[in-house]
Write a structure and sequence with these properties.
It is built from 8 helices and 9 strands. The termini are far apart. It has 2 domains: 198 residues, Aminopeptidase, CATH 3.40.630; 67 residues, no CATH class. The strands form 3 sheets. A 5-stranded mixed β-sheet has the order 3-7-4-6-5. The protein is of the alpha/beta class and 283 residues long.
């Protein structure tokens, strides 16, 4: 639904949700060996929310009717496009209901010191009619910020922004991001990604650190660091994902490498260790 899946020929399909779950389980094991208490927001490929697009269809229909009523064309008031209704029902499922269900677990059940949100990135296809792999590959980290004037017209968003600022969460997100992204850049050797639009701003003059106002990093009450390494549909990353979770080193895309899941894990683990060691020494 969210276009985080693709398949090329007879190769194994690429599913971001499955890739991040592999990394999450590896990272959990390593951190627990060091004495940390770790929760996963999900343990399987199944949704966290009990809602489904079908159960959210009436809400989507209501929202579309309200949108039509506020438009300048009276002819559209009682007419809803079927495809638009399907898209909005799905959007309410995976972007609103699912993330709010995870927020409920994190804020009310787990109550952790921080959240590491693991992702794999992707680039636009050069040709929308066929999946052709790209050359680009990069890395960046996201923290909460970059609220637009329109977003700040909503009471709940203003409240969540102020909570992040006044609780000190915003300061800790920046401190975490600096150290974790440094370790990730050392481990992956990836260049920094650059946003071209207005929905993100660079933080601290660091080319790797960007602020964005996302539902998850706004709703989670603790510090949240969103990691976005690897372009899944790049030639290099595609080959590394196809190679799977192998042991040792393999010659892939012109170099001997550990598997991509282990590399991701090592980068995050090193960053967290460096952060807490520095924190402990400063105290």
């Amino acid at each position: 639904m969210e276009n985080r899946f693709f398949k090329i020929g007879k190769n194994k399909p690429i599913r971001e949700g499955d890739l991040t779950l592999i990394v999450a389980q590896k990272l959990k094991d390593r951190l627990e060996e060091l004495g940390a208490i770790v929760w996963l927001s999900r343990k399987t490929a199944a949704p966290t929310t009990e809602e489904r697009p079908e159960s959210l269809r009436k809400i989507a229909e209501k929202l579309l009717l309200e949108k039509n009523e506020s438009s300048s064309s009276l002819l559209t008031i009682n007419k809803i496009d079927t495809n638009e209704l399907k898209r909005l029902s799905e959007l309410l499922f995976y972007r609103v209901s699912e993330l709010r269900a995870r927020a409920d677990r994190i804020n009310n059940q787990f109550q952790p010191d921080l959240v590491i949100a693991l992702h794999f990135n992707a680039a636009a296809w050069p040709d929308k009619k066929k999946n052709t792999l790209v050359e680009t590959n990069h890395l960046h980290v996201l923290i909460n910020g970059a609220y637009s004037k329109e977003e700040l017209t909503y009471d709940d968003i203003r409240f969540q922004m102020l909570y992040k600022l006044l609780s000190g969460v915003a300061d800790e997100e920046i401190a975490l991001a600096r150290i974790i992204i440094s370790a990730m850049a050392d481990e992956t050797k990836l260049p920094a990604y650059r946003y071209r639009g207005t929905n993100a701003v660079r933080v601290d003059d660091n080319p790797y650190i960007w602020a964005r106002n996302l539902i998850a990093n706004r709703l989670y009450l603790c510090p949240v660091v969103f990691l976005e390494p690897y372009v899944m549909n790049s030639k290099e990353v595609f080959l590394r994902i196809q190679a799977g979770d192998y042991e040792g080193l393999r010659f892939i895309a012109g170099a001997k490498r550990i598997n991509i899941f282990q590399e991701y894990t090592e980068g995050v683990l090193t960053g967290l260790l460096n952060y807490y060691i520095n924190l402990d020494n400063s105290n």
